[in-house]
Amino acid sequence: MGELVEFFNRFMAQLQAPALAFLLAGMLLSAVNSKFRVPEAIYLFCVFMLLMKIGLKSGMAIREGNITEILLPALFCIILGVSIVLLGSITLTRLPGVKKEDALATVGLFGSVSSATLIVGMLALERESIFFEDWFPALYLFMDIPALLTAIILANLYYNKNKQKSVVHAPVKIRLIIQDCLRGQVLTVLIIGVILGLFTRPEKIYEQFFSYLFEGFFVVLMLTSGMQAYTRLKELKKAAHWYVVYAFAGSLMHGLMGFGLGWMAHLLVGFSPGGVIMMAVIAASSSDISGPPMFRNRIPTANPAIYQGTSTGLGTVLVIAIYIPFFIALGKVVFDF
User: Fold this and answer.
1) Domain residues for 268?
2) pTM, whole model, 2 decimals?
3) Which of 79, 92, 183, 239 is the most exposed place for a label (fewest CB within 10 A)?
């Protein structure tokens, strides 16, 4: 009973957190047809600031720590990203009223990582004084790329099987797909941040600039994401309702898979309880920035309203509002802290 009350209190606190509040405010602005828009240049600058901060912190942590500590969690993240897409490819794609390319793009987003959800999860654990490894955000790369790559390969195989030669220009070239992933606006900045943190000494600028302004830029990003999410959510009404079920059930199932693998890493290499919780959070999340542009080019017949509506419109809100408090509560029960 005490755990239930604690979860409810944490859930209510999460509803009042700035991240979710600004996300819902953006959805409200879009719902009332407000003409307000965050200029694209400001939005991209906020994305840059947030990802560079995360990358720098991860790089500095790897430099000061033991590189071998990251190997097993990184392997588990690769397994998670691929497994989530493969699992979705044999479940969601077979449901009535669901087009296979729409489903593959959707499960691809759910297999990859939401940068916004990653940040919210980190802030939630910091607010609860739960330790997690500073290098944890670097695991983003190990889950995001394999998931996107798996979804694109499956979609290309489907196109070729159905003789849709006008859609694909050549056989699947994994090297080119990986290059596209690495050149995306999210992973490019994150990788550069990790490299700079690893091989330079950016501590002063990190503390005085990137860290100081972090939460302010983040709420602007959440406001914009909320406006985009509502637009996609309206369009999602025209699609099969199975996507709504998938958003609820899939996020929870994926998060539990992440928690289980994180717990194994805890037993084998001493991965922190906070790291276990964060692995559950990123497994439950769904891509909001890196995935959609990739799928517009690589799975062109998939409907963005469906895969982005399911991911950003439903998945992100669910994880921030419900599943982050749930996995924190689960972590406290399992690890007894």
Assistant:
1) 2-335
2) 0.87
3) 183
Query: Helices in the chain by DSSP H: which ranges?
Result: 2-15, 18-31, 40-64, 71-89, 100-111, 115-127, 139-161, 174-183, 185-199, 203-205, 214-236, 242-269, 273-284, 291-298, 304-308, 317-318, 324-335
Q: How far apart are CA 316 and CA 150, in angstroms?
A: 21
How many structural domains compose the chain? 1
Other beta carbons within 10 Å of 162: 11
pLDDT digits (tens, 9 = 90+) for 35-80: 888 898 888 888 888 889 888 988 898 888 777 889 999 999 999 9
| Residues 222, 119: Cα–Cα separation, whole Å | 11
Closest among 59, 145, 144, 158 to 100, alpha carbons compared = 158
- Residue of 109, 108, 101, 102 whose CA lies nearest to 86: 108
Phi, psi of 232 (to 5 degrees): -70, -35
Treating both helix axes as pointing N-terminal to C-terminal, what angle do 18-31 and 115-127 enclose, rounded to 10 degrees? 140
Do the beta carbons of residue 72 and residue 273 sit within 8 Å? no
Can you tell me the distance from the alpha carbon of 291 to that of 145, in angstroms, rounded to the nearest whole number? 9
